[in-house]
Amino acid sequence: MLLLQLVLFTVLVPDVDSDNDSPEPISFRTILTTSFYNRSWTENQGSIWLDELQTHGWDSKTGAFIFLRPWSKGNFSTEELVECGKSFHTFSVRFPLVFQDHVSQWELELRPEAWLSRGPSPGPGCLLLVCHVSGFYPKPVWVMWMRGEQKQQGAQQGDILPHETAGLSCQVRHSSLGGQDMVLYWKQHRPMGLVFLVVMVPLVLLAGLALWLWKRW
């Protein structure tokens, strides 16, 4: 998903209530935030801010402003507010279309995010692994399970793999990576019981050896 925020209108208003000789101005901003999920699905959010205080929301379906404060309407008439809402709505509809028409010319690229997860075991001696890849642009992406330098032929997302996962990795190739593939290695977690035995057995042997040497001494 690509998120783009535009400040459509900004006015600096002097703080008339300030006692300072050089009062700091207060900003008045109109903001449009457009989320691009794909070429056919966008979502718009509008808001108006007086410095750090949000005074208006915006209904993207009806194109009407929402007054968040008792004084948000100000001295504007209902007709003027309706016209402002219509203009804002028209821009919010046209802007994503213009942006998407030119995005290919800008050669916009977003790096993918990738991670590995383990699902419930589908059966004895089997392991369900998934390589997740998201957040990339443009759409073409190459994802492959690897064991060392060898491709796991036929392995796809959701495939059942043998429980032996030594050297198993997921390799991601995308134009935004500049020729450097992203490689994620699966690390097999050892059972706690096995870890306990690996640690305790040498300690017991050392304790027995120390006791035997002490008796011989």
TrEMBL record:
Name of this chain's protein: Ig-like domain-containing protein
Annotated coiled-coil segments of the chain: none
Cellular component, GO annotation: endosome membrane; external side of plasma membrane; extracellular space
Name of the encoding gene: LOC115288506
Keywords associated with the record: Endosome, Glycoprotein, Immunity, Immunoglobulin domain, Membrane, Signal, Transmembrane, Transmembrane helix
GO annotation, biological process: antigen processing and presentation, endogenous lipid antigen via MHC class Ib; antigen processing and presentation, exogenous lipid antigen via MHC class Ib; immune response; positive regulation of T cell mediated cytotoxicity
Membrane topology of this protein: Single-pass type I membrane protein
Compartment list: Cell membrane; Endosome membrane
Ig-like domain location: 96-176
Molecular-function GO terms, alphabetical: endogenous lipid antigen binding; exogenous lipid antigen binding; lipopeptide binding
Leader sequence residues: 1-18
Transmembrane segments: 192-214
Recorded superkingdom: Eukaryota
